[in-house]
Specification:
Layout: H1 2-9, E1 10-12, E2 18-19, H2 20-27, E3 33-39, E4 55-70, E5 81-86, E6 93-95, H3 108-114, E7 119-123, E8 143-160, E9 163-164, E10 169-172, E11 178-185, H4 190-207, E12 220-223, H5 227-234, H6 311-314, H7 329-338, H8 345-350, H9 355-358, H10 363-368, H11 374-386
Antiparallel strand pairs: 1-11, 2-11, 3-4, 3-11, 4-5, 4-8, 5-12, 6-7, 7-8, 8-9, 8-10
């Protein structure tokens, strides 16, 4: 049996058994090293699938640089799902400048060299767009890249009956796998074992390479609590104290970033569909009844040319747009329910859409990003424009 053969051939002290992450931390500068898998694991990929009593010569460590991007999926009150994308993968990307403007196709390395994070991107159609890069309706999805990090691997060669394969392989640092260093042969002198190791070194030098493509370069989906990315999400690079804090207790969500000035030109220069935000004027006062806070605003007129210096105009609901600036995320959810759009409350809450952001939602965004029907989009558009609630 292989178990007997391994134990009869190699000398190893099971008290030195280490899980792979610990082995990496202790021995990454001591490679190459011969090891035996003392605790195997039936993993989901070839990178974390190792059988007990396999023997391997660990040759070197390799770090795959990755970016972490927020995935545009429904969540509760924060983004819970993330994409991990290898920097040196086979895909091309485009910077999203506005709703309709994108950059030329770029590699992820070029993006990281030229832009500071966070940055909004889409997968470029110049190459095949992976399923992870699409919305549910098949359209291209946008992703906010928020951090870079490294995923570590150990590369080496498997041995069978004392003979080493030319094929090289990478092993992920699965905490489910334990390994033990091999210190010698059971029934042969140490000098013979040292010579054996030297022969393995010579064989590798002549026959083997350990490229990054051996490592796992897939696009991966993670939850915020997955151990592979938990420390990255907690780091100062994303949130000052981490979403769950030092004790693991849930902290309040980070404040919404301050909004910049509108990019939309003034009304007389409007018409460029590439403008990202719409220029609008807030009304000074809005009449709300006690029992119906969001009733239809009657008599709303365009008085953009009227002077704000008049006391009457300051109390008038007669400027260009209905005033939503002070609406909270919860208020917006109540509005959706009143408009019979309650099925979108959870998504709006996850996107932290308050009154300020609500006014920038166009019909195209509602239909393409939130899966509104055309009638539903018109219903919300009418409310944003005039406060109209169908009777």
């Amino acid at each position: 049996m292989e178990e007997i053969e391994v134990q009869q051939r190699y000398k190893f002290d099971i008290s030195q058994e280490l899980v792979l992450p610990e082995f990496y931390n202790q021995h990454k500068n001591n490679l190459p090293m011969l090891i035996v898998v003392s605790g195997g694991y039936y993993g989901q990929t070839k990178y974390d699938d190792m059988s007990t009593d396999q023997v391997m010569r660990f040759h070197c460590c390799h770090s795959v640089r990755r970016v972490l991007a927020r995935e545009p999926t429904e969540a509760s009150d924060i983004k819970l799902d993330y994409l991990s994308i290898p920097v040196n993968g086979d895909y091309l990307y485009q910077l999203v400048k506005t709703r309709t403007q994108k950059s030329e196709p770029m590699t992820m390395s070029e993006i990281l060299e030229k832009r500071e994070l966070p940055v909004l991107i889409q997968f470029s159609t110049d190459k095949i767009v992976p399923d992870e890069g699409k919305n549910r309706d098949g359209s291209q999805a946008s992703f906010l890249i928020i951090a870079t990090y490294e995923e570590d691997f150990i590369q080496g060669n498997y041995l069978l009956n004392g003979k080493m394969s030319k094929d090289t392989a990478a092993v992920s640092l699965s905490p489910m796998i334990t390994v033990t260093p091999v210190s010698g042969f059971v029934d042969k002198p140490q000098e013979e074992f040292d010579t054996y190791l030297k022969d393995l070194d010579d064989f590798v030098a002549k026959n083997c390479t350990y490229p990054e493509r051996n490592c796992d370069l897939r696009i991966k989906k993670y939850n915020i609590l997955d151990p592979e990315i938990k420390e990255v999400v907690r780091s100062d690079a994303i949130f000052p104290t981490g979403i769950y804090g030092d004790t693991g207790d849930r902290l309040p969500p980070p404040p919404v970033p301050a909004r910049g000035k509108s990019l939309r030109k003034k009304e007389e220069n409007a018409g460029n569909e590439d403008d990202l935000y719409e220029h609008y004027v807030k009304i000074k006062d809005v009449h709300r009844t006690k029992n119906d806070q969001y009733t239809k605003m009657e008599g709303l007129q365009n008085m953009s040319s009227a002077s704000d210096s008049s006391p009457q105009s300051s109390n008038s609901a007669a400027l260009i747009r209905f005033n939503h600036a002070n609406l909270s995320v919860k208020d917006v959810g109540d509005i959706l329910k009143k408009l019979k759009l309650g099925k979108f409350v959870k998504r709006f809450k996850s996107e932290m859409i308050d009154g300020e952001i609500l006014t920038d939602l166009t019909r195209n965004i509602l239909i393409n990003e939130f899966n509104f029907s055309h009638i539903e989009a018109i219903r919300l558009e009418k409310f944003i424009a005039s406060g109209h609630v169908p009777a």
